[in-house]
Amino acid sequence: MSNFVVNAVARNDEGKGASRRLRRENLVPAIIYGGDKRKKPTAISVANNELVKLLEDDAFYSSILTVNLDGKEEQVILKDLQRHPAKPVVLHADFQRVTKSNLIKITVPVVFANFESSPASKAACKFAAEKNTVEIMCTSANLPENLVVDLAACDSDGVLHLSDITLPEGVEIVSLRRGGDHDQGIGYVYAPRGN
Prior knowledge:
Layout: E1 4-10, H1 16-24, E2 27-33, E3 42-47, H2 48-55, E4 65-69, E5 72-83, E6 90-97, E7 103-113, H3 119-122, E8 126-129, E9 133-139, E10 147-150, E11 159-161, E12 172-173, E13 185-190
């Protein structure tokens, strides 16, 4: 797991006017919520340039983050992010507290590996990915940075589904909890025309 630290400052003023003032000072209004039921949501602000730099790493979106809030550390995940449509500016961020016992829902990347050594690749077939992220549910201790799909045994004209992903212990795919009808395709093997 990657170690990301987000430096934040608590803020008392809320609302549109306060958010605009923060953005003019190159700060991003954000909130931390969830976790222990006794903890109330906390309004915070984060330096925009620092947050934009952290967001450049894809692992940031699917990792447990440490928010350094006025000297105290909280473990969170990134739940929502609002960006400016044309500028490299984050408008708002939502962070959810995580505890060791509570289940969290988070979207993680899917990595397809070893297709080059598969029988389908040797038969001049190609692989097309249909889905590159999957929403999972797990505890913070079991959170994987990504899910790896091993394609070494793929045959030609095969279709891969969510149920074909080998999951680490304690990790569930949210769609599959709804039943077999939600076992979506994540990729397929095809023979290019002319072969």
